[in-house]
Amino acid sequence: xxxxxxxxxxxAIARSIDACLDLRVPIISVVIGEGGSxxxxxxxxxxxxxxxxxxxxxxxxxxxxxAILWTDRSKAPRAAEAMRMTAxxxxxxxxxxxxxxxxxxxxxxxxxxAALRVREAVLSNLARLDRIPTDELIERRVEKYWAxxxxxxxxxxxxxDRGSVENGDARGEMEIx
Length: 177
Hints:
Helix content: 40-55%
Structural class: mainly alpha
Strand order of the largest sheet: 1-3-5
Number of strands: 5
Strand content: 5-15%
Shape: globular
């Protein structure tokens, strides 16, 4: 809201993303619970983004989304469904790279078991990323980040403006009028 803007939160998030995209080491993000704020978008600037299977990840909470869309926070369940913020949905959308299975009953029932699974996933991914030359790693990371949110509208032929980064939409260069 206004308070976050006054404190420069958007600029801080942008600077964080920019710094991550230039880091010369592998970056792995793991969502272990609820990632539901504007700052959560900075997690996407990683080489690999993974989630525990029962975690959720979005740039806004369902309550905040419902308040904006319908001026009614009680519609949060409807918003949550539309937002597709589960690990399974986000993997299918290509927002995350992998899902880390949780122990029976969830991570909160066996924190040690969950931590061991996270450790295994991070080390496995790190071993794969370590084999990629640094410049290529950075190039792939930047391409992956900028490709997020690119979409095609149904019924539009290939080659027409599809609302993608290549067409300037994500950088505020779109003509309005």
